[in-house]
Amino acid sequence: MRRKVQIGIKLFTGSDQGHGQVALLPLATAKAAVDEAHRHGLLVFAHPTNLEGVRIAIESGVDVLAHTVPESPPWTHDFTQQLKRANLSLIPTLTLFDVEARKANAGDQQRTAFIAHMVDQLRAYSDAGGDILFGTDIGYTDHYDTTLEFTLMSQAGMDYKQILASLTTNPARKFGDSLRTGRIAKDMKADLVILSADPAHDATAYSKVRFTIRNGEVLYQER
Length: 223
What we know:
- By secondary structure, the protein is of the alpha/beta class.
- It has a domain at about 65-180: TIM Barrel (Alpha-Beta Barrel).
- Helices cover about 40% and strands about 15% of the residues.
- The chain has helices at about 25-40, 50-60, 75-85, 95-105, 110-125, 145-155, 160-165, 170-175; strands at about 10, 15-20, 20-25, 45, 65, 90, 190-195, 210-215, 215-220.
- It has a 4-stranded parallel beta sheet with strand order 1-4-5-6, covered by helices on one side. Strands 7-8-9 form a 3-stranded antiparallel beta sheet, with no helix packed on it. A two-stranded antiparallel sheet has the order 2-3.
- Helix 1 (about 25-40) packs across helix 2 and helix 4 (about 95-105) runs antiparallel to helix 5.
- The termini are far apart.
- The mean pLDDT is about 95.
């Protein structure tokens, strides 16, 4: 019997309309969508854009913030505790904001400040013990190299063990599959990534993949 594939849905609780305008998903609509998704055992991700988008995500019961929040003041201790109480995981997708700044032809100083704002949000939530999940925005962007993402996560103060957890044990737990995957142990799935360098010395080593193994089968080998 094949195991049911678990998927999720993504809500734009706050959608950037340009010129400083953000379209907000009505809370009642968001809550109905979340309740229905949870009824089917699915996680719900949210694209918040601003603090009101985050509020809607919290009050509707969303599980994961799919991005840090461009239109947000610095994250305070009280704010990060509010996110934690809501059991919200965070996928930072910091590289996305470098891509967006370059698309907008932002100057180097402006782009650097914009990205630093996102890095500071990740630092605040990570330091508060928030749940961090690694992710990219591939599909929307064509930036496949993950080197910058790991560099920025390191700049946010995450050590190599925390980054490793964001790639393995954290998502396994969030997706309810920690008894089968996320760790190297007896009776776990033989899903492995072999690196060509040691991330304990340089976090970007996580982007230097030598082998990818799924269910014991080599799917990728560095040439």
